[in-house]
# Entry
Amino acid sequence: MKEIMPNAASECGGGTFKIDDAIESGRRTLQLEADSLLEARSNLGHTFGQIVQTILGSSGRVIATGVGKSGHVCRKIAATLASTGTPAFSVHPTEASHGDLGMITGDDIVLAVSNSGETDELVQILPAIKSIGVTLIAITSSTESTLAQLADITLESKVVREACPLNLAPTASTTLQLAIGDAIAIAIADARGFDQSDFARSHPGGRLGRRLVTRVRDVMRIGDRLPVVFTDASVLCAMASMSGKNLGAAIVVDQGYQLLGIVADGDLRRCLERGLTPTSVQVGEVMTRTPRTAHPDVLATEVADLIECTGISVVPVVDDQYRLLGAVSTHDLMRAGVL
# Structure
């Protein structure tokens, strides 16, 4: 890769490009957008609370709609609302005017986003939207705009200027729109007591979702996959069972499958260090009698945390009567994507 010196200059589009100038431009943009967010934070008041209250009290969905960059923002707002417990989707105004209005019912809330509040495609469908009987919420920089005048609730999203040097390309204004959407979604989630289990229900496919919903019973090995031995078995027998079942420990039970202990690699090592003969020593003499255990209904992440904290590699799974049901190993948890 060719090294570029910090102050190197090159011809670019009829001008001269300098690394330092680009860095300064980036900092200027971030500062301008950060200032816009801080200004909005200071001005946030009753109207914002009214929007949150209205959505919380609705039995319908939130439909976000906008054009251009604001349309992209609407898709993000709808996605964030949906993933945090508020049913939502986005509709493009043009598609709405050609049939997609049929997806909107009188129980829904329409969240219309437009910096100017005068976007033709959006303004043209507002009368039809209002005729459905929905509650119309507007996010716009102009409280005197057509959108604001038709809305039931209007939240002003005004910025001093765009980050674009020409003050034309939507930059600071769309950042503010996104942040307002996030603020609405999180305020609603907070009010509903949205927790990890709620999040997991709408995110079952990702690693985070798996960690939040996967229980020990979903990942534990059972039946013939368990290296189970009785107390009178030899240490050599336990070693063979561990090797044959590909698990780093043999689980010791009585005839009723009551858990008595566990023989792990460390127990075998200590046995050999003491000069004991694996063929003549019984597992009852060397086993760990109070192993860490797990219940099948606990989250697999709890076992993962236990394994990481203690350094053990196998956790027996028992019922309320301490009968053996299965076992979970480090590899089982890694395969399930929770470790």
